[in-house]
């Protein structure tokens, strides 16, 4: 695989794309469960194969025990032999012993698939799922705070619009009032204008606060969250690579030991000289 000449940065490049990134990261974490199921199924296959090899070896050890004497010295030997087992029978025993050893290797490999791969993957998946939930909860908290700020600004604007309308109503009352009522109407108008300015100031402050929060939400909070999700995903891949490497090493060791058994068997077979059975 070629070296990747890029270094993506989710926070800088994806901005407010929390939902798609979160979904993508969630899929990767869920995939860990598929990995552990793979090794569990592989373990079951190896366990079954080991049992079948052991059963086969046992079956033919029993057959050998019944026929060893007749195959070695005949059904009615005339002379007491030095051994009731010929060289061919001894060599056949080596082959059956090799089969038993290989069955034991598959059984050991089956156990290692569970303890060294499937179980760690299960633990890893649970840990990353917990971290994913924390990210989702924090994102929801940030979104709630943002929406709450928007809602508060909307309410403040509503109060400002309402007080502005009331100022206009007071102004119209001045225009329509008689001389004896103008002073009272003007006082009410001035009081309403004062209230309007207070509400306006509150509204302007809320606008500034909301804009600042919006800026931090889209340019600081969410990008930091995306960077954290990216780190979570890349760490998961790194951990998965470590497990895959261990899987390869375990199987390589299993095959190496099996090869040693077969090499030993291969060295024993030439020792079975045909003349030895005749002797």
From TrEMBL:
Residues 128-202 form a coiled coil. Residues 8-277 form the F-BAR domain. It comes from the Eukaryota. The keyword Hydrolase does not apply. Keywords: Coiled coil. Pfam families: FCH. Gene3D superfamilies: Arfaptin homology (AH) domain/BAR domain. PANTHER family: FCH AND DOUBLE SH3 DOMAINS PROTEIN (PTHR15735), PROTEIN NERVOUS WRECK (PTHR15735:SF21). This is Protein BZZ1. The lineage of its organism: Eukaryota, Fungi, Dikarya, Ascomycota, Pezizomycotina. The gene is bzz1_1.
